[in-house]
Amino acid sequence: MDIINPATGALMTTVQEDNAAAIKEKYVSLKKGQPAWAAKTVAERVAIIETFYQLLDAEKDELAQTLTAEMGKPLQQSYNEINGARARILFFITNSEKYLAEEWITTEGGTQEKISYDPLGVIANISAWNYPYLVGTNVFVPALIAGNAVLYKPSEYTLLTGLHIQRLLYKAGVPPQAFDVAIGAAAAGEAILELPLNGYFFTGSYNTGKYIAQKVAHKLVPCQLELGGKDPLYIADDIADISGVAAGTADGAFYNNGQSCCSVERIYVHETIYDQYVQAFVKEVKSWKTGLPTDEGVYIGALTRPAQITVLEQQIEDALAKGAELATGGKRINREGNYFEPTVLLNVTNQMDLMQEESFGPIIGIMKVSSDEEAIELMNDTSYGLTAGVFTSNQPRAEAILQQINSGTAYWNCCDRVSAALPWSGRQHSGLGTTLSHLGIRAFAQPKGWHLRR
Ligand code: NAD
């Protein structure tokens, strides 16, 4: 498998892909090793993960450089991601013992009752490339702490990062029989689906997620899916600092080159402030430096996958044909590597692909609305349901609107953020199940109800 630097087109290295037999061998070893890992106490496993947490910091320079080289995000954003992943790990280190401890329900009377939280067994973690540390951490860290063995398949676009994660987990003390890496692309993922794993935890696109859910349904094991989104924002008429909100929400749409599951993907703005907001938004977008992700001050680096450029071009073409107006950007940047101009489209409608299909790139549509009711209707006009945000000076107004939006996450005066303490879950085509928070600790355990009669 060739590993290509998306910012330069250069071949970084070539890695041997695992075939189905090699992946099966890894699974068999994990199956054998899982009981010994589960026999450790939660505190012992947490201590090992704490060492991993420290190693991520100690080696962050090399990790950030690898991540930027293989997926194209600006170097500073790679550091931000590693720091963000460490914050999530700290949440699991601090809270896992509490949520995995046995719970006594009744200790009096003839029959005593308790709940224990047992590991699932050997689970698969089939992962995405856009935030490999963050989305990986959501799964393999709590899964390991709960006593599972993990067969981790990093995305083919961030394989070297996946191998760093493996190296550091081993260095921290996770045995190879508790964590292993399946190396490869879709075929490696397919091989994992054929094996009798005890749970499938997937991060990626709706199409692959739907396919995986159908493929493993007959096994009757947990299948969690963290999928894409078409996340809307509504900017109400009473915001105080229009240019500040415009700059902050532009960052929410374009950070990581728009390649975030919770990127802002659609913006609805109240007509009374629309012109001022758009002007400030476009000014902000035009101020960004685009270029090599290793260059100082670059905000828009390279897109990870060359194929996404075609998706962006098609969305822009469709929008323009249906009456949209280009405020800035609109085409690929003519240089070696996968670069696209940060693009803002106005006069858009929900009938355009741009406002319905996940863009996963540096483009955004902004639409004028005349009331909260219209905004709510348009925000809910989607097959996705990951996050939604409202900017207003009025908290009750924000909460009343957000209560009516069918999404797993609600933002008031903020966007494109994740908290380890809150559940991360998509509705509709954005996914199934929950990671992060105490629910995302228990997602990797199966409860057993104990009836104990003396
Ligand atoms: P993808 O669906 O193309 O690939 C995801 C993983 O699935 C990769 O490891 C890939 O090799 C594997 N895969 C592909 N085909 C497979 C098959 N037939 N069987 C088994 N495995 C297979 O997604 P991607 O491009 O890596 O990630 C981008 C998508 O992920 C976007 O839609 C984004 O919104 C979503 N995402 C969601 C979240 C979230 O938390 N909800 C987080 C990050 C990314």
Quick overview:
The protein has 454 residues and is α/β, with parallel strands linked by helices. The chain contains 14 helices and 18 strands. InterPro entries: Ald_DH/histidinol_DH, Ald_DH_C, Ald_DH_CS_GLU, Ald_DH_N, Aldehyde_DH_dom.
Q: What topology emerges from the helices and strands here?
A:
Layout: E1 2-4, E2 11-14, H1 20-39, H2 42-58, H3 60-71, H4 75-100, E3 103-106, E4 111-119, E5 122-126, H5 132-145, E6 149-153, H6 159-172, E7 179-181, H7 186-194, E8 199-203, H8 206-216, E9 223-226, E10 231-235, H9 242-254, E11 264-270, H10 274-286, H11 307-321, E12 325-328, E13 343-346, E14 363-369, H12 372-379, E15 387-391, H13 395-403, E16 409-412, E17 431-432, H14 439-442, E18 445-453
Parallel strand pairs: 5-6, 5-8, 6-7, 8-9, 10-11, 10-15, 11-14, 13-14, 15-16
Antiparallel strand pairs: 1-2, 3-4, 4-18, 9-17, 12-13
The protein binds nicotinamide-adenine-dinucleotide (NAD).
Pfam family, one: Aldedh
InterPro entries: Ald_DH/histidinol_DH, Ald_DH_C, Ald_DH_CS_GLU, Ald_DH_N, Aldehyde_DH_dom
Organism: Larkinella rosea
Which key terms come to mind for this protein?
alpha/beta; 2 domains; 18 strands; Ald_DH_CS_GLU; 454 residues; Aldehyde Dehydrogenase, Chain A, domain 1; seven-stranded mixed sheet; binds nicotinamide-adenine-dinucleotide; Aldehyde Dehydrogenase, Chain A, domain 2; single chain
